[in-house]
Amino acid sequence: TMEMMARILGDMSSYTVQEELYFDLDAFIESKPSEDQPFYRELCKTHAFSSFLDSRLLHPEKRDYFAAEPELKSSSLLASYLYLRGMFNVARGNKIEALEDFFAVSTWNVQLFPHE
């Protein structure tokens, strides 16, 4: 969802140079915790990221409510992030890291897991 993208990528404006419409992708990824960097590298290759970045570069006056108010970060957003990162770890074959993320999800929002 747009809310999740805005919250996960909310600090990306710190890495844009508006005069040149340039985004410092390497600095952005390096600013993230080392254990999250592979996730952000893959995320930044997606069409959703490109669209989000283009929107921010072409319309810098637009600010997302979610990115502007960091204290509004919810436990459900954190759970969504952990679930997404867990799925990323599964895809990369990092089973232990995936299990750690999925276990952490259950602390924040167990409803993200499929059930019968």
TrEMBL record:
GO MF annotation list: guanyl-nucleotide exchange factor activity
Which Pfam families has this protein been placed in?
dDENN, TPR_DENND3
Q: What are the residue boundaries of the dDENN domain, all occurrences included?
A: 23-64
InterPro entries, sorted: dDENN_dom, DENN_Domain_GEFs, TPR_DENND3
What range(s) does the DENND3-like TPR repeats domain occupy?
73-116
Q: What PANTHER family does the database record attribute to this sequence?
A: DENN DOMAIN-CONTAINING PROTEIN 3, DENN DOMAIN-CONTAINING PROTEIN 4
Tell me what this protein is called: Uncharacterized protein
Q: Which organism is it from?
A: Nematostella vectensis
